[in-house]
Structures are given as C-alpha cells and as structure tokens.
Amino acid sequence: MDQMILEQQMLRQGVERYTRAQEKALKRHELTDPQKKVFKETVGTVAQAIEDAYQEKKASGAGRRPSWYLPVDHLGSLKCAVITLQTVFSKCSIAGMSTNGVNSYVAVTTAVGAMTEVEMVAKIIETQDEATYKKLAKRVKNLPGKSFKGKVFTELAAEEGFWNPLTDDEKVKIGAGLVNFVLQSTDLFETYMDNEGTDDQTLGICFTKEAIERLKAIEEVEAWMRPVYRPMLTKPRDWETAFTGCYNDPRLSNTFKLIKTGNKEHIRKVNEAIKAGKPFVKAVNAIQSVPLRINRFVLEWVEKAYRMGLPISSFPSRDVISIPKDAPRWQKTQLKRRLTEIKSEQANFLRDLNEAKEYAEYGTFYLPAQLDWRGRVYAKPHLNHQREDHCKALFEFAEGKPLGPFGVYWLAIH
Hints:
The protein is mainly alpha-helical. Helices cover 59% and strands 8% of the residues.
C-alpha cells in the first residue's frame, strides 16, 4: 500500500471514530465534544449573571427572595451555572448534530431543579455530618444513572431527617429561575411553543439556529483533528519544527507535536532546540528511523495462545459473565459494566492482531515518535513495542545486526 493512501485512511478512520464517540455521548445523555467546548466558553458568563442577580438581591434585603436564591446561597453561582448549563445541554441534545433536539420547558426546568436539590442536600449533610454523608454516598455509589442515584440519595437524606424533599412545583420554580439566566446571558437556547393554537400546545426549549451552526462548525474542525495513528511504510520525516515531523500529509502531521505540551514558551524553546540541532532531537529522529517488522512466528503463537484460552497476564479475560435475573439492581449494573469492559478489551486485542497481520504483509515499517513533557520517547501509533507483552513481542528489527561485546553489555543493562 502507498503511504499517502494509508495516511488518508488514518484521517478518515479518525473522523468515523470521532462521529461514533459523539453519537454514544448523545445516547448516554452526556455532552458531545463540541458541546463541551461551548460549555466551557459560556459557563463563566452564566455564573456571572447569576452572581450579579444574587448580590443585588442580597444587598436589597427587603422583599421575598426568588426561588433560585436558596441554591445559589448554598452552592454558589458557579456550581449553579454548571448544573443548569449541563442539564439544559443534555436535555436539548442535537441528535446526530443535524436535527434540532427539543424538550418540554417543564421537563428541563424540573431536571435542573432536581439536580440542584441533590447538590444542596449533599452539601448540607457533608457540612453537618460527614460520617452520614459518606454512609449515604456509599449506599448509592453503584446505582445506575446519575438522576436515579441523586433521587435515592435525596430520599435517604429525608429518612435521616436532614431534608424535606422538594415538590415537583418547587423544582420547576428553582429550575425556571436558573434556566432564565442561561436564556438571558447566552444565545445558545430559545423557547418555542409546540403545537401552537391547539389544545396540546406546550412550551419547549431548544438550541438556537446560531448555536447549531456553531456546534457543527466545531465538529467539522475537530473531527479531522483526531486521526487514527498507524505505523508508517516509509521513513518518517525528521522533526524540523515542533509541529512538522513524521507523516507526509500536513493534515496528519499537524495534529501532534514533537513534545506533549500546551505551554507556548515550552514549544518556543523546543523549536529553538530543533534549529540548534540539540542531541535529544537527533535522538528522536534516529529512534523513529529504525526499520521494524512483525515477527510472524510470534504473531502466530500469540493468536493460538489466545484462541486456546491460555492464562497469559496481558491477554484480555475470556471469562463468561452471566447476569442472574434475580440479582439486585446494583449488582446487575456492576456485572454489565464488567461485561462491557471485557468485550472492549477483547475487541482491542483482536484489533491489534489484525493490524499486526496487515503490517506483516507490508514487511518493513517505522514508528513515528514524540516526547512527553519529561523528555521520555514514545511511539505515536497505537500498535507499538512499548505496550503489553503480547504487543511488544510482535516486533523485531527489520535489519538485524550482530550485538558484539558492547551490544550484549547494553542488552543486559536494559
């Protein structure tokens, strides 16, 4: 296969993997990566709006305090902003990043009120009786779902006499007050009337058109920034700057740096070191220029050993987990989680074997390298000789040479 074709595959596979990850996040009612980015950019604005209103109300002293005042007083403006914005994002998720997700305004505000209540209860108990807090937290630890876990925690707190549960109406009022800050301080969401003019008309909340376009734009950029890095069939390009090395396609080579750091001053010094031809840069270039190949004999026996179910430590579990129908809900959740982990480990293992088989056919290949912030050298592709034993054993030098007396000495030290 041609190296350029292989690099195009890496980019496409990265886009496909990124898209699947966003779809999974939506199904789990979690924020997608674009949503997380927008969330970080706007949560401070929402928190400031809440804080300004809180301080104004606190300073006035007179009059009835709004429903949102109590949670802000207990949790602070930032915590309330985080809870509210995360909940509204989750409830108004954009299915497939193309269809506008819509939700009943009452459902959204109730959810915000419920999550706020859970955090308030936890804060009150932890402050008043840390031992009870730890006991209740332990009891709900293995329960499935954040909402269900919070509901049970609140019920247990009521049984212990720490809290009188809020009514649905009280939750809606608290949630409506906090959601209103989001609507007024950002351009992300808007309300609308569903089935307007009919007996079934209800108030809803959804992303604005501008927010949808903004999230799509972020997704289109980020999707191409997460390639699936694989070994190279040609010798990697030497590092000439902190962002230009190894792969040939600039879209690929620009997605990772010579050294893992986000510090601009650090990157500047790395670029100076590259220009000056410092030894550590030459070392990285030398390491990634070593031709390698797959040891077919070891590959065959790794696969056989796995098929035979031999108990090798770095192999994924072959256990068959059955989930009893009469098992408690928390136990079923634990067993399902472990079953998911085993399936994932097995899939990754077989993916490694398949990729090793592919590169065994290619013959010689190379592993692009980079440094961590401490200066340690790591191969960039997932399939590399610095991983578990079954992976490490698959590699051998494509151009074997006699060790000689000094080679044996250093091999013994290694």
